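# nightly structure sweep
# worker-07 picked up a monomer target from the shared queue
# config: single-sequence mode, recycle default, output format = structure tokens
# input follows
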Amino acid sequence: MSALLVMIVTLFFISSILFVSGILDFTLNSLRDKVDVNISFVNDVQEAEVMNIKQVLEGLPEVERVEYVSAADALTEYIEKNKDKQDLISAISELDENPLGPILNIKAKQPSQYENVKRFLDQNYASGGTSIIYDINYAEKKAAIEKLDQIINAVDRIGAIVAIVFILLSIFITLNTIRLAIYTSREEINVMKLVGAESYYISGPFIITGAIYGLISAVIVLLALLPITYFLGGNIKAIFFDFSLFAYYMSNVFWFTFMIIGAGIAIGVLSSLIAVYRYIRKS
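# output follows
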């Protein structure tokens, strides 16, 4: 029973890592999705010229998507954004024509790739002079983009380290539990050794036992995660950009089943192998 409880706790640790990884990925993707670079065009530019640049940008390997915002929509967004600044709104309303040109919102695949996109634009559609591009706001967002890129890289490294630590800790705990089970069966093991039994014959029952512990523990954990994720989902959703813990679990239930059962059996078998062979060598 003690071995089973330890395996259950161990697999809960592993499942928590999987959930934390999912939450972090979702959060970082949500943050990444809020970062973009805008190209503002002069107000007398032809739509065909803008759409031509849009098509070229969509062909770049760094670019995930490009959104076109017409001059009229750009003006509407500007008024909505500055609705509390009556002096700006009054100045805009007094003009005979829309002073704003169309905009292209660029979404790169990775934050670190915005600089390459900006370099491409500078080389091919340089701002100033007779260029149809009025402004590229990369400089304004550069600090935020670089910070987000650093966070993503740091989270990836920390996640890998934490996963390794938890797995090693799980093996260590399970190993000691299996060693206790072996110690209680030491008389049977000694008898088998005296009659000339091979190591694999002696270790076989303990390895199977470890695998069974892992399988049973995995099933218990997978079933327990259903109510746990359901009741914790509301709190998680309020913190992490509407991330649904229960929906994430249900949509990845086959992956979780494979990972938890695989980890349970692997840890049980590996721990049993190490414990048995260490005991046989010492005895």
